[in-house]
Structure formats: structure tokens, C-alpha cells
Design a protein that fits this description.
With 250 residues, this protein is an alpha/beta fold. It is built from 9 helices and 10 strands. The strands form 2 sheets. A 6-stranded mixed beta sheet has the order 6-7-8-3-9-10, with helices on both faces. Strands 2-1-4-5 form a 4-stranded antiparallel beta sheet, with helices on one face. It is globular, with a radius of gyration of 18 Å.
Amino acid sequence: MIELKDLEVWYGRGADRRAAVQGVTLRLEAGESYGLVGESGSGKSTILCAVAGLARDWRGEIRVGGRARGRGRKSVFARQLQMVFQDPYGSLHPRHTVETTLAEPLHIQRLGGVTERVGAALDAVGLSGAFRYRYPHQLSGGQRQRVAIARALILKPKILLLDEPTSALDVSVQAEVLNLLVRLKEEFRLTYLFVSHDLGVVAHMCERFAVMQEGRIVEETEVGNLRRGALSHPFTRELRQAYGGYRRHG
């Protein structure tokens, strides 16, 4: 569903140019949940932005559903791939109701049945129809992130890019949102590319993961090896030790 080959992404020009991702190659199969782990600034979120069409300066190869992605955001990819951002408040327009937020992608794609589709999206993430006319400031952090997930689902994509979707939430609701994502993946047969700094989240959500350091993948392995401590790269072992092994979620 996603294939990256020798991906490089940079920011700035001339003397200010800074490499954010360097020579990343990876492949996600349909229905897989794949994690990207690393410290802040390691390039994890930049990869998501490149796949989503939000990164301007890159080279290499990005393929989504077997189709090569060019620069910019094209309608054909929006129907297939959507992104959920880290901050559920910042990603929602403060002056738009939940219904307006969810209806916007449908209007852009010129899809009908807006009322029914909005209701179905809310139901999928465990929110009643009473939330249609609420504004972001009237929602809890967990509810806001559920709305953001509903917005990502409303076009019925096959792939979700998840950029630390629970890190801005209270600990008490993190597991609820993670378990929701697990259920939605099975229900809608989704493929996840999941960014997190938390090895416990990765262990709960993913089958395989890659560890990033300074823009490069230093290790790619299965989650079972994380649980067993069978990790090959010193940096990966340091991450595991820093997190006390890993904390289970759910």
C-alpha cells in the first residue's frame, strides 16, 4: 500500500538547507500497521508529510496503492489516504461545528449524502448525533481526536497516516483512542503508518516498526523482537531501556 525508495526530504534553501530524511526505504503491505519510532526531530513526522503530499522538497520514490506520488495534493490520493495529526485542537477549525468539519471533505470531493455520511462517521468513532452542532471548545481532548479520526475516515480511505494521535491526550483517554483505532482498522480493513515516540504504543498498535535516528532508519524489526529484547542496533536498545522495556496500553 505504501512504498518508499531512497526518500530524501529537506527544508530550507542554500546555506539554510537541512536534511530531515535521508535515504529511507520501506514497504507496507495492505492491512498492515507499521510504526516509525525515534526521538523528536528524527524525521518520523516528515515522512508522513511527504507521503501525504505536504512536503514540498523531496526526491526518491513514493508509491501509494501502486501509484507514484508526485508533488502536491491530488484528489485521487485524498480518497485513498488521510492523515490524523498530533494536536486534536489545532487540527480542527475553532469556528466550525463538527458537522461542518466532517462535511468539508465531502464537499471538496463533490460527494452526496452528506447528512448520512456525517452520521455514519460519528457513529464509527463512538460519538452520537448530538455532537454534530458542537464546536471544538465544547469537546474534551479525546472527543476532539475522535472527530479528527471521523474526518479522516469520511472519504473511506484505505490508508491512515497517524502522527502521534494520542500523545496530546490525558493518560486516562489514550488507551480508549488506541483501542478505537485497533477496532477501526479491523472494521474498515485499513493500513496504518503510525508515528510514535512511545514503544508501548507501537507494541500495542503495530506488527513491524522502524527506528529512526537523525533522518535515517537504523533498524527495522517485528514487534515481537521488541518484547523479547532481540534488537540489533544500540540506539534501539537504548530506547527500549529508556522506556523501561515498554509499557503496554489497552
